[in-house]
Amino acid sequence: MTEHQxxxxxxxxLMQADLDNFAGLAEMVSQWAAAFTSGVDAMKVANTSxxxxxxxxxxxxxxxxxxxxxxxxxxxxxxxxxxxxxxxxGFVTGGANPAAQLGDWxxxxxxxxxxxxxxxxxxxxxxxxxQWLLQMVELPSSFMGVLTTGATASxxxxxxxxxxxxxxxxxxxxxxxxxxxxSIEVFSATPxxxxxxxxxxxxxxxxxWRPVACLADSEAMDVADLARQLEASDCPxxxxxxxxxxxxxxDFDNLHAVADLCEQHQAWLHVDAAFGLFSxxxxxxxxxxDGLERADSITSDAHKWLNVPYDCGLFFTRHPDLLQQSCSAxxxxxxxESELPSFMNLGIENSRRFRALPLWMSLQxxxxxxxxxxxxxxxxxxxxxxxxLESSEHFDLLKPCRMNVVVFRPRQKDAKEVAExxxxxxxxGEVYLTPGIWQGQAAIRAAFSNWRTTGEDVDRxxxxxxxxxxxx
Length: 472
Ligand SMILES: *Cc1c(COP(=O)(O)O)cnc(C)c1O
Prior knowledge:
Layout: H1 13-20, H2 22-39, H3 65-76, H4 98-110, H5 122-136, E1 144-148, H6 151-169, H7 174-177, E2 184-188, H8 193-201, E3 209-211, H9 223-232, E4 237-243, H10 255-264, E5 268-272, E6 297-301, E7 313-317, H11 320-327, H12 356-391, E8 395-397, E9 405-410, H13 415-427, E10 434-438, E11 441-447, H14 455-469
Parallel strand pairs: 2-3, 2-4, 4-5, 5-6
Antiparallel strand pairs: 1-7, 6-7, 8-9, 9-11, 10-11
Helix pairs in contact: 4-12, 5-12, 6-8, 6-11, 12-14
Pyridoxal-5'-phosphate binds next to α6.
């Protein structure tokens, strides 16, 4: 028997059967997905109890896709959250708009690897998507960008570039030599938890963070305190991490003032604009992020306010050379002849999902105007909830609503009672809220970032909150 006749060298029979019946199976998935998408607003918003999966062994042989699908329908589907729906207001979640969702199906189907160019148009699509985004948020084309798995990965890249910059100031190429011979301090007022995590991962350590004071009733940096601290520091390497829209207070750092100080002290300026970046599409908010163009690196997210499916983050920098020094992966089998960048040399992963496509489809389908409409609508919904809370005798609005997040608590309740109220609210299945801390006190956050939320959803939740506050 020759090798090619050996039945073991062919396609597995179950995979062959699924391939033969692919159109039918795809139809089955497509029908389920359509029903899920159209019905997501009627679902219980969150499943708050822990679910156990049936423990089966995978050591035995499988039974093909149709059987796997029925296991999904029985064991998984009933216990999902409606995080894609209109009343999931926890964290800053975002949904997946129709074009983005369908674009993501295409991404999985065509399964392109966007590590390096030379075999398909995918790299050019990612490049064009980045250029569109820069235009949309009015950042100069001198920025280079790369799509990441999320804002955490983007913060990691920002700190990696800042680290490389601070090393070169000390005549050390950290990408080659490591961190042993350098000192670097990181100044920030309200870094996102992911930034602190990334300080650990890039080898600077969480303790390299020098907390900068905040302005009164705000998470924004007190620039005078930053000036004092930079002045007092004798550390030769400095990174400043500023915020464009903090996660609880939606506060914006004064970027021109911060950038002036960074220039004066030769500090790297990284700005976390995970969702605040898109406030630049609103005329009334545009000035809040003035000076962003002076950042050395910028983090943002597409899976939050651009409403494309997970995972999709954005990273921009004016110094792609520093990014490349840290991220380049050299091996003979990776070389290409292309003029286009190898995105594998500008980020964490070598093999990369074609995550630009859902974004590209979404921007084609709805344009910057579609994004602007959604961002504006979400801000109006947040203001509607804030106004209602402010007029209610049962709740305290803890901070005037500035963008898309509302921070509040039931009146005269301690931390435990606030947590209990939130749990009861979430168990109703009508809305999902997550906790926060405002000025040291337990709070509840409601974050609006979904394309299908409406003012009626806000009305519905206000009625629910009123009912729960009255204890009936
Ligand atoms: C959500 C968020 C992050 C982390 O983003 P992921 O997409 O969850 O990795 C970082 N910074 C800010 C301000 C955020 O809101």
